[in-house]
Write a structure and sequence with these properties.
Elements: H1 3-7, E1 10-13, H2 19-30, E2 34-39, H3 42-54, E3 58-63, H4 69-83, E4 88-91, H5 105-108, H6 118-143, E5 150-154, H7 161-164, H8 180-198, E6 204-208, H9 226-237, E7 248-250, E8 253-254
Parallel strand pairs: 1-2, 1-4, 2-3, 4-5, 5-6, 6-7
Antiparallel strand pairs: 7-8
Helix pairs in contact: 2-9, 4-6, 6-8
């Protein structure tokens, strides 16, 4: 460590080589944080970090596959040796299974509960739920060393049981999902449990709803940009000491469970 690195807040974003994760990394870097670009593919991670540095940010690539315990542990060891702590963890990495693309219903049908491939469901939960547990637990000792630790889990409007159970609601026209949507609902429940456990330690844990953003997870058919989706993530990553914990928020405020 050196004086430069100890003065900056350190943020790790998983899946930060593209989409909302990369936009979040850029916003946090612009706020003066050191951003760690978590990416499964080392080359893509290096390219993403280089782009952030070219824009004036302090960014470092970090090879991290949320489904691979060895890369997770190596990443945690690297962060500890380099910085000694972690201030912000953004669990952004996620997959959509067969796809939730409104313009490709033949793909979305692959997630319909009555005909879904259970192996695909397991793969989605492995990344979207179990991966979050694995990364969070590996980084918790480092987060506990921060004076203002924050954890943000990337969720989805579809995670809301209130919204998705409404036959006349805004998501009523979407195909049913046994993989992606339930994985995000489980992530919300997990967020509440971590927030409850870590409240006394001052670690604020919240779920972010970025809205329907144009990313490769939906074949870029979203009506919001990745930068717009990153706004609520950045807000939750920079909450003050009196900020909420255990909540589910969009840019407009709380989202119903």
């Amino acid at each position: 460590m050196n004086e430069h690195t100890t003065q900056r807040r350190v943020a790790l974003i998983t899946g930060a080589n593209k989409g909302i994760g990369h936009a979040t990394a850029g916003r946090l870097a612009a706020l003066g944080m050191t951003v760690l670009v978590g990416a499964r593919n080392p080359g893509r991670g290096q390219d993403a970090a280089a782009a952030l540095r070219a824009a004036g940010g302090d960014a470092h690539a970090l090879t991290l596959d949320v489904t691979d315990p060895e890369t997770i542990q190596r990443a945690a060891t690297w962060v500890e040796e380099r910085f000694g702590r972690l201030d912000v963890l953004v669990n952004n990495a996620g997959i959509a299974g067969a796809g939730m693309d409104q313009v490709a219903p033949e793909l979305a049908r692959g997630e319909i509960p009555s005909s879904v491939d259970t192996g695909m469901v397991r793969a989605v939960f492995e990344t979207n739920v179990f991966g979050v547990i694995a990364v969070t637990n590996a980084m918790l000792p480092l987060l506990r060393r921060s004076p203002a630790p924050r954890v943000v889990n990337l969720s989805s409007t579809g995670a809301s049981l209130t919204i998705t159970s409404d036959p006349d609601g805004p998501l009523a026209g979407l195909p049913q999902s046994a993989a992606y949507v339930p994985s995000k609902t489980a992530l919300n429940a997990l967020t509440v449990q971590y927030a409850s456990e870590l409240r006394e330690a001052g670690i604020l844990v919240n779920a972010a709803c970025p809205g329907f953003c144009a990313t490769d997870i939906n074949n870029f058919c979203g009506h919001r940009t990745a930068a717009q989706g990153a706004a609520v993530v950045v807000h939750l990553a920079t909450l003050g000491a009196d900020g909420p914990t255990g909540g589910f928020f969009s840019e407009d405020g709380p989202v119903p469970w």
